[in-house]
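S1.2 Input.
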Amino acid sequence: MTPERVVEFRARTILQILLIVIVVAITLEVIWIARHVLAWVVIALFLALALNPLVGSIERRTRLSRAPAIGLAYVLVLLVIVGVGASFVPKLIDEVNGFVQATPNYVHDLTHGRGRLGFLERKYHVVEKVREQVQSGGAKKVLGLSGAALSVTKSVITLIAATITIIFLTFFMLLEGRSWTSS
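S1.3 Output.
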């Protein structure tokens, strides 16, 4: 029989391991809390890397300093985005209008169990279930509208803040990027 092996840990070693675990946990929590802002920084870095060749080209061709060249690059990118959007928006508007005009027919077909969505009424009796829910709790309960307005408002404000933050971060990364890479 082999003798029993005893492993001893000093209190200092245990405290060091606990401290490392606590620091890692706190770091992960901070990263989790700041994940949206960190994503904004990563997006701004990507945009700065993507726009840097354009800014450099504008600087060389127009002999503008860095800040006006960045501003001109922003204007050019904005014009491209508006141009692409202008080519898609009319088609999108036509499709939405077509859907709005066809909606009464879809509802009629659904309530009578016909058309593409007729199987929902025949198989699941959706119309009666929706009527029961509307009568018992109103559309608020059916559609979950209680917090929807607040959620949409919060999302819009967050989107606006993110867009402004990313634009400014990208600007300053483009403006100061040379000094970061040279040092």
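S1.4 Remarks. The CA atoms of residues 35 and 105 lie 45 Å apart.
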